[in-house]
Amino acid sequence: MAFSIEDIGRIDRIVGDWCLHRAPPEIKQQLDHDYEIDGQAVTLIEVRPTWRGLPGEFTRLPFAKFRFVKTTGKWQIYWMRASGKWQAYEPDPTASSIENALRIIEADTYGCFFG
Known about the structure:
With 115 residues, this protein is an alpha+beta fold. The chain is built from two helices and six strands. The model has no long low-confidence stretch (mean pLDDT 95).
């Protein structure tokens, strides 16, 4: 089951604000962040200019995913492995809110999200 319109609005506000302020303005042309909502999941995406592409081309690399589990009321946190598969983030695999999930990936104690 997908998020309600109210949930999507709340997620847009919280995650959109995080993406907007994650990279300092002076490097926004080289590194930016975006997100996608799909079903009960929110995927964070790193946006960079294509390394050997034409000017104006960008790559979009997913690096974190939050999946809401309605029965528990918790957000599961995943990181993208080099193999392209999602894996639960072991130090803190769940969060009580999307704000807490963002705080957990900001701390990134194992370097899974930001190296």
